[in-house]
Specification:
CATH topology: Nitrilase/N-carbamoyl-D-aminoacid amidohydrolase
Largest sheet: 6 strands, mixed
Strand content: 15-25%
Shape: globular
Number of domains: 1
Helix content: 25-40%
Number of strands: 14
Structural class: alpha/beta
CATH architecture: 4-Layer Sandwich
Number of helices: 8
Strand order of the largest sheet: 5-4-3-2-1-14
CATH class: Alpha Beta
Distance between the termini: 39 Å
Radius of gyration: 19 Å
Order of helices and strands: EHHEHHEEEEEHEHEEEEEEHH
CATH superfamily: Carbon-nitrogen hydrolase
Length: about 290
């Protein structure tokens, strides 16, 4: 189907709209300072009019010192940064996707954990990053994530008042089977909070996010870190909001700031009806055969 076939996306039923905002920032090693930045962003008109506010991965702490990170990690009930975000959510009456914080599990492991906070400030659900970034890209990734964080094992879909949200974090983006599972379990909006490197972001960020939207018929929100934090590793920025047809409807560029968009949730149904890939998917087996001489 060509780009000229957008006319096929005729109205199907009627659903609500969702005003979504993504904060793009450069987090550092001081969680209190990072929280203060977010408080400032919450005063912006784009945030004040949003229903859902999404924050990037490692929003509370980006620190190259693994020992300091381990010492900082706390259970969510004792997590000062998260307690501050919960207060912000309660004050503003907004849903907040906390892209990820450095937390400690009930078993004592350090985890890279996404948290969904409701407008009453209560924790709705959490997701621990499944695919940990151990790829040594251009020497930028000197400490593999698995040396610091415990890996998550459970994918999560959470029902918001408007739409079902599938959770993921950064490097998860490269594993399409995760997103297929999220969609099979009802996801209509996918979140990919990230601290994506500049090196790989320039090569793959837009392409992968648009692909996840197209193949799933979902909106995608991807708040990213930007600039060069104190860990010395440049981040790509370009936080994106992508519609189910794969169109980028908001791009934050490379500077700190807020992007927002009003998501027409009817478009999810229209795209899935125009290209019913989810219905056409079939199971199959794969065989490996040796070449035969004829």
């Amino acid at each position: 189907m060509s780009g000229n076939d957008d006319s096929r996306l005729a109205a199907v039923g009627a659903r609500e709209e969702l005003e979504c905002a993504c904060i793009q920032m450069t987090s550092g090693p001081e969680a209190d300072r990072n929280l203060a930045q977010i408080r400032d962003w919450f005063r912006s008109p784009a945030i004040q009019s949003a229903d859902l506010v999404a924050l990037p991965e490692a929003v509370d702490l980006l620190d190259a010192d693994a020992d300091r990170v381990r010492a900082y990690a706390r259970p969510l009930a004792e997590h000062r940064f998260l307690l501050g975000i919960r207060e912000l959510a309660r004050e503003s009456r907004k849903w907040v996707l906390v892209g990820s914080v450095t937390a400690r599990s009930l078993q004592g492991a350090v985890v890279n954990r996404c948290v969904v906070v409701g407008p009453d400030g209560e924790l709705v659900t959490t997701y621990d990053k499944i695919h940990l970034f151990d790829a040594p890209v251009s020497g930028d990734n000197e400490v593999p994530e698995s040396a610091l964080y415990g890996r998550g094992h459970v994918a999560q879909v959470v029902a918001l008042p408007w739409v079902r949200l599938g959770l993921s974090i950064c490097y998860d983006l490269r594993f399409p089977l995760l997103y297929r599972s999220l969609v099979r379990h009802g996801a209509e909006l996918l979140s990919v909070p990230s601290a994506f490197l500049k090196t790989t972001g320039e090569a793959h960020w837009h392409t992968l996010l648009r692909a996840r939207a197209i193949e799933s018929g979902c909106f995608v929100i991807a708040p990213n870190q930007c600039g060069t934090p104190e860990d010395g590793i440049p981040r790509y920025g370009h936080s994106l909001i992508v519609d189910p047809w794969g169109r980028v409807i908001a791009d934050a560029g490379q500077s700190s700031g807020v992007i927002s968009a009003r998501l027409d949730l009817n478009l999810i149904d229209r795209c899935r009806e125009a290209l019913p890939c989810l219905e056409h998917e079939r199971s199959f087996v794969t065989e490996i055969r040796a070449a035969e001489l004829i």
